[in-house]
Amino acid sequence: MKKIYFLPVAFLFLTACQTMPLKPESTTLSSEVSTATSTKVESSEPRPSSTVNISENEEILSEKITVSEITLTPIDVYEIALESYPELHIYSLGLDNNRIYGFVYEIEGVNEATEQKIELDIHPVSGKIVHKEEETWHIKDQMKKELTRERITNIQSLVDQTLAQNPNATLDEWVAEYDDGRFELEVEIYSKNQKHEFTYDLAN
């Protein structure tokens, strides 16, 4: 009788030893699949090739330009950009107040022939390109609407108007581009340690 009971117990014990590792192996496999999926998602993100060129005339950057020293108008800068890149479709033009070298014009656009997004920083007095960046464009860049010369004819007068209506304010920056279904100019000023933003419609 003892042998009759011993054999089933031994059989069950051996069976349990063979089936127990299945659970941890399954867990390990699941973990590896999850990690591989995550890695695949990260590697699928676009990695645009880009080149950055800074003007050889480095002394330009040492001159911190104030708003009263700006001599070039938005139209001047627009034409300078197109002279350097005739195929450029400009969709953003602005004046940025850089902490290091003061005010500088910024232009963004796309070159459909080379499928590149181009960003330019242009000195507001000399008109020299002090910084240039080219990279493979993204879908969002392709969908931007072109800012034509006619759209920017009133930018300077609108900026001057904003400052005239706020005599104690200082200009921080402005940008013109297509947003919210229309071409807009956004002007930011500081007055009494507070930032104020004004938006104008650039539609003709």
Give an overview in words:
With 204 residues, the protein is of the alpha+beta class. The protein has 2 domains: 42 residues; 152 residues, Nuclear Transport Factor 2, Chain: A (Roll), CATH 3.10.450. It contains 5 helices and 8 strands, in the order ααβαββββααβββ. It has an 8-stranded antiparallel beta sheet with strand order 1-5-4-3-2-6-7-8, covered by helices on one side. Strand 3 and strand 4 form a beta hairpin. The longest helix has 22 residues. The chain is globular. The N terminus is likely disordered.
Query: According to CATH, what is the topology of the largest domain?
Result: Nuclear Transport Factor 2, Chain: A
- Total DSSP helices: 5
CATH architecture of the largest domain: Roll
Let me know the number of strands: 8
Quaternary assembly? single chain
The structure class reads alpha+beta
- First-residue to last-residue Cα separation: 105 Å
For the sheet with most strands, the description reads: 8 strands, antiparallel
Any idea how many domains? 2
Low-confidence stretches at least 5 residues in length (pLDDT < 50)?
Answer: 1-49, 54-59
Q: Estimate the strand proportion.
A: 25-35%
Helix content: 25-40%
The whole-angstrom Rg is 31 Å
Morphology call: globular
What is the spatial order of strands in the main beta sheet?
A: 1-5-4-3-2-6-7-8
Along the chain, the helix and strand elements come as: HHEHEEEEHHEEE
Mean pLDDT reading: 77
Per CATH, the class of the largest domain reads: Alpha Beta
